[in-house]
Structures are given as structure tokens and as C-alpha cells.
Design goal:
Elements (H helix, E strand, L loop, with lengths): L13 H9 L2 E5 L4 E3 L7 E15 L5 E7 L6 H8 L7 E14 H10 L1 H27 L2 H16 L3 E3 L2 H8 L3 H13 L3 E4 L2 E4 L1
Antiparallel strand pairs: 1-5, 2-5, 3-4, 3-5, 6-8, 7-8
Length: about 210
Amino acid sequence: MTELNNISEFRTSPELKEKLYQNSIIKEFKEGDTVLREHSNIQSIPIVTKGSIKVLRTDDDEKEILLYYIKPGESCIMSFLGGLHQDTSKVKAIVEEDAEILFIPIDKVILLMKEYPQWLEYIFRLYHKRFEELLEVVNAIAFKKVDERLLLLLNKKEELTKSKIIQITHEQLANELGTARVVVSRLLKQLEDEGKLKLGRNKITLI
């Protein structure tokens, strides 16, 4: 089990960390598992302690787009907001890498906000980070070409996994970018011809 004390992103007091473990349920998930579905009721708030999760938004035509990643020490601000306002989820969360997650019941989240200013500070800091990431998504969709967005996504995955070898299909990339698979395949071949990456079976090696 990963200790929150060892996660630099989670800067709170030992007492608060102990409270979080006492009041939460710890679950483990495999890559590809769905942690949260759209329109589902939010009963608890997740904090990732190991692995990573990707948060996506789906439109009425079932097209998806990646919003942000949740890394160790982080949570999903959309879950915070939905849970606190007794609203249903507007996003879905899927495990990117095998993960361990703390699930804190909504009532405990509210109590901790009253008892520990550091917990409220953590939520505001996380909200600020997610807001900036969502602005980046809007900026990329509005002003960047698909090939630029594709390279940006691959670089994010490299940073997340700390590996230049990315195990992913063209279909998965297309879903996360909100575009067609044939577009992604064409752009990947173009990037390979330019010497920026090497394509393999369900994997991409960045150069």
C-alpha cells in the first residue's frame, strides 16, 4: 500500500492523513477498469495513491475527449463538486495504470473541511490545477491542429508513465482526442516519416 506521507503532491499534516485512512475504503484497480461512470451518483471522493486515472467527457454521439489525468496524491475535482452538491457525475474515470485509490465518503469529506483548514486548502489547490488543465484542453481544441494535439497527448503519456514506449491503440488515441481513428492513423504515419516516433503493434515509441 502506498502511504500518502510519501506523496509530495499531498502536503498535509500527519494527523489529517491518518484521518483520511481511518475514514476511507482502499480499493485496487487494473488498467482499463472504470472507476466512475457518467450520470452515476457520487457517494465518495477518490484520492489516487498509486497508478493513474484518466478523466473523460462523452457527448451524445458517444465521442470522448480526455480532460485530465489524476496522479498519486491527487483527486477528481469534478467528484468533489458533484458530491458536495448531491449531483450526478458529468465525467467518467478510467484507470490508465494499475491503481490504488482511497474512497472517502461525502459526509466525511464535509467534516474534514470543517476540522482541517489544510484539507480545504488541498481542495482549492486541486481546483486551481484542474481549471488550468481544462483551459489547456479548450485552447488546444480551439487553436491547435490535430497533429499538435496528438503530439501533446503522447508527450503527456510519456511524462505520466516515464517511458518513451506507449502501449496504446490508434482507436484509443482517437477517442481521447475526440477525432476519428483514420485521422490519428494518418497523422501517426506522418510523424513516423518525420522521424518523431516509431509505430509498432499497439505501441508507439517516441524518438
